[in-house]
Amino acid sequence: MSPYGAMTAAARAAARRREGRRGPAAARRGLDGLGGPGGLLAALPAAGPAVLLTVLLTVVLVVAAGCGITPTEVRDQGRPPVISYSPTWVTVYLVRDGKLEPAQVPVASDSTENIVKTLFRAGRQPPDPELTSELAEFGYYDTKTTRYTEAERPAANQGDLGYRLNVIITGEGRLTRLGIAQITCTVRQNKQATIWSVEITRLFPGSPESLGEHSCFEFQDLAGPGVRLPP
């Protein structure tokens, strides 16, 4: 006979409600029984590690759900950090009214190659529309650096180490003296401590042609008004 058989309908309903309220406690007693001396967990080692892992995960999920634990949402912590870029500024020599004039232009780095490339580029897009360049019809190709030997070392540079920079260009025709001065003085302006002289070679089209080895001092007559050229 049902335990509720002798009760009235109202009494049976009340008994069922009381039993329902005891549900969480019963669930906890069931979990406690898992680890008891005769519980399920005590018998699991013999069942193998895979079964043990599955049961343990199930128990953790049940306990977490009973404790009201809910996963956290991803929170927006603001915009990611931004790395700011500050270019290096160098001096290149462009032309105004047939004379050399310095102009400040940005470069990615102050390597000799970047400086020479920037000089050629600045001639096509000058920072001042009144500035021009004798290098507009020529292109940068390469740079090569060689060290001065003891026999070649100038008397004014005894005891120092210096280099000769060979700037290799391409283009039709012959580069003017003003164009040679632009390259030489730009290199010397930014690399005075290490580059003692600048040699210029036109590679192609046609046969390679050396345009000589120069220092900026020999172009002092090409300096614009108030412009002081490097040595």
TrEMBL record:
It comes from the Bacteria. Keywords: Membrane, Transmembrane, Transmembrane helix. This is GerMN domain-containing protein. The lineage of its organism: Bacteria, Bacillati, Actinomycetota, Actinomycetes, Streptosporangiales. The chain crosses the membrane at residues 46-69.
